[in-house]
Amino acid sequence: MFQYKAYSLNINSEIEFPEFMPSEKQEFDVEIVLGKTPDQLVGENVVTKVRYQATKNEVLYLLKGAGKIYISKGTSIIVEPIENPDWEHLKNHVRSRAIAAILHQRKWAILHGSAIYKNGKAIIFIGRSGAGKSTFLGAFIKKGYDFISDDLCLIKKTKEGQILLFPAYPQVRLWENSIQLIETNEHLEKGPAVRSELDKYFMKPKTSFIKNPTPINNVYVLNATQNKVHSIQNLPPLEKLSQLLKFSFAKGHLEGLGGHIEQFELYSQLLKDTSIKTIDRPLGMKRESFWKMIEEVEHDFLNPV
Questions:
Q1: What HEC string does 177-215 produce?
Q2: Average pLDDT in the 189-214 region?
């Protein structure tokens, strides 16, 4: 078994995830094992989607060409691979969708975004796939910023009532076109391919991975547009809440698991204390225009009005 720390959870896993941080803890929050899963979830309140089913305390993923993943009670992930499975497909779902289900079962909120760290506060970039979240993260790492998360941002209200961002694990992945756009330097090195058939690579940040929970200072909603110039805009309060709900990761889980009310209340509190704006960025930006936009975003969060 492999022992890890990731997503603020201590994990005991039969499957190796070298990107996670090793842990010496003897007590675990989550166990990942190979074994037999249910063929399907049953009951009156089962919600069935194309790739998964969800009900109270249970989520079952059915992955073509890979196998099944059964997540239950916020503590257990069982992986049942088919013969000669696509292991990378399975593992990718375990470290993203399955972990998201675990966190949802524990009543955490998850934003689909990446986060950097500055002056004791977190700055989060959220948006749909392809909006540029990891590209922004890579750009700020290149500028020397420390980072907290790539792709999943874990948010929880503490017993003291504070909304904090919790670390995921110290990994950054970028497509080749993003690497060409931002260019690497002494703070960000290109590593091996994520998969042999993908033009996407693990990156090696030389800045620090922040391991402690962090207050959230700014959230930027990234939109890839056909506009010719970029812009940073404020949002009205109701639209801020709408955007947070819209870019919650794997939010379909909650249809079966429950938790919509808790998530709504958490985001409602978050927007009271956090600057939330949109960034419209043109598709196909050239390097000079891209870095001008990054400089303006940096000026925005370093110089609040």
A1: HHHHHHCCECCEEEEEECCCCCCEEEEEECCCECCCCEE
A2: 87
* Whether residue 120 sits in one domain with residue 67: no
CATH number for the domain spanning 227: value is 3.40.50
- Record the tokens describing residue 210, joined without a space: 């922040």
- Per residue in 24-62, pLDDT (tens digit) is 888 899 999 999 999 999 988 899 998 999 998 999 999
One-letter amino acid of 238: L
Instruction: Give yes or no: residues 97 and 135 share one domain.
Output: no
Among 78, 105, 132, residue at a domain's last position: 105
> The tokens of 52 are what?
């998964």
What would the mean pLDDT of 163-186 be, rounded to a whole number? 89
Look-up of token digits 């099944």: 68
Q: How far is CA 70 from the centre of its chain?
A: 20
Tokens 């079962």, located at residue: 105
Nearest to 133 by CA among 104, 163, 168: 168
